[in-house]
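User: Some background: our group keeps a shared notebook of sequences we're curious about, and every so often someone picks one and asks for a predicted structure to add to the entry. Today it's my turn. The entry only has the sequence so far, pasted here. Could you supply the structure so I can complete it?
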Amino acid sequence: MKRNIAAPLAFFDTNVLLYLLSPDEAKANVAETRVSEGGTISVQVLNEFTQVACRKFRLSLVDVREILGVVRQALAVVPLTVETHDLGLALSQKYSLSVYDAMIVASALRCDAATLYSEDMQDGLLVEKRLRIVNPFGAA
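Assistant: Of course. Here's the predicted structure to add to the notebook entry:
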């Protein structure tokens, strides 16, 4: 993965990527810009994206695979591991996060991301003194 050294590594929550499919042009543009800048997602994000794209947006698996192919070219993908799971459980308890959100946060921490883009988590929260949660649509 090519990474701009001047920019801190970003990690993406599923909800940000789903705006790539949104009729909300402003949010879709923000999501596209952020993804084009690069970053990382986890396999969990791929799974959640697939579920919502098929259920809510009624896309076929063929279409979803094509979209995710483009996303996977732009963003690195990290696996889910037992270590990520264990860290996620600890973060869920410590920060009162849902288990699913905590697993996203754990994945972001384990790949040394500095920023976690999420619309649903607490904007501005600093996790473990090194990962800032940022709502990329705050000014959109």
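Suggested note for the entry: The chain has six helices and six strands. Helices lie at 14-18, 25-36, 43-55, 61-74, 82-95, 99-110.
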